[in-house]
Amino acid sequence: MSDKKTVVFDGQPLTIEDICRIAHQHAQVELSPQPEFIERIDKGARFIDTLLKEQGFVYGVTTGYGDSCTVSIPLNLVEQLPKQLYTFHGCGLGDHFNAEQTRAILAVRLTSLARGFSGVRYRLLQQLAECLKQDILPMIPQEGSVGASGDLTPLSYVAAVLAGERDVFYQGERQATQTVFAALNIKPLTLKPKEGLAIMNGTAAMTGIACLAYQRAEYLSQLTTRITSLASVALNGNAYHFDEKLFSVKPHPGQNRVAERLRADLQLQDSAPRNDTRLQDRYSLRCAPHVIGVLEDSLPWLRQFIENELNSANDNPIIDAEGEHVLHGGHFYGGHIAFAMDSLKTAVANLADLMDRQMAQLMDPKFNHGLPANLSGATGEQALLNHGFKALQIAVSAWTAEALKLTMPASVFSRSTECHNQDKVSMGTIAARDCIRILELTEQVAVALLFAVVQGVELRGNIDALSPALQNTVKQLREHSSFLNTDRALEQELRLCLELTRKQYWNLYD
Fold this sequence. Notes:
Layout: E1 5-9, H1 16-23, E2 27-31, H2 35-53, H3 81-88, E3 93-96, H4 99-113, H5 122-134, E4 137-138, E5 141-143, H6 152-162, E6 167-170, E7 173-176, H7 177-184, H8 195-200, H9 204-234, H10 244-248, H11 253-265, H12 283-286, H13 288-310, E8 318-320, E9 325-327, H14 335-363, H15 382-385, H16 390-405, H17 428-460, H18 468-478, H19 491-502
Parallel strand pairs: 1-2
Antiparallel strand pairs: 3-5, 4-6, 6-7, 8-9
């Protein structure tokens, strides 16, 4: 029996963590088999069938799409319309979303369709759930969405795969969907009216990426805090910059949470004698809670934005089978995700900038309070030849600059498209992709600085005096990267620790 958590899709709200567990294969997927749920889903599809028989006017069912909504489709051609939709949208380019991102996208789309307002059959939900269960992942190009009418082009690859077309990533390799379906005895789905539109006309790509970005940022905030604690030790910093009384007069809860974590790491007690030999450290130490705290204080409203979008019906039109209404609107617009991702990427890039400044202090003997230049551990004549972390500090500067460059908000670059029907669009998917890239770069900065602060702490000596939490972090790193007493190429160690960071390996805060 597997001990994995099971995430049930039954129309009830899911969390960011549910989507991330599915993405990382830490949870099993189950589509509710409850008769009342099946009936609620199928009722919407039957309502569409009724409208067709009555020759009702339904956008995307008996009309063309977008600016072509004034074009009436003869009933004998209506069944061909979904295939036409996903076919002509098969023009995505760029890198493909990776396996974790693709699972998140599928899970988000299934969540929305399970709300029961999209006019699709339960059978379609089964096909989507089966792809998640069997880990049959559509090859989805990352580029080509303006974020309204939703993620049309990326999600066309999902629709095509459900119908047995295009390519998937399965068992470690790219294969034709038709081949994989045949091997697993999965019958391709012939999409019914409204089903192509229901799959594609939504915000699943940007929202799935946003869920993953949120979780990475949440962990990165804690890692930056732990690194700051170690930097304070390495630089002989003044721990009373994080005093509880001091922070009580500026009551941002996230900022105060960061200061509390720093106090615990540094074993700061109000009753302890104060070392005032240096009253004020540079801002990258003294103001670290204020920088990290912006992200910490943003997490609650970012969660609200992302989870509201995750648990919404966000295609068009909305099908109210109970009231027998077809509601035409714009729920595919990804403005909330666009704003959340533009905001998150700025907060994360500020972490990179903070750590870049801490790295610069550590390397420079003018500012590092007695540590060797570039934190070199070489002694004697070898000290003349060795350069320690000099090149790594240059790399950190490069990664930080690239992260900062990407903080331009994508959401303000709306472009009028599709004969000016889509004349104001969200750019949410671009914002989410930018956010992931900034997270990647900032994680690289964090790992590099982790190497440096641990080296600095060991050069400073008296490891036994550190708090158990800091000792544990030093020990964890040293299991994968040894003290730098002579120059060596660090790339492979960095890559390994970067992978560990993305798996949330380092023990941080409860």
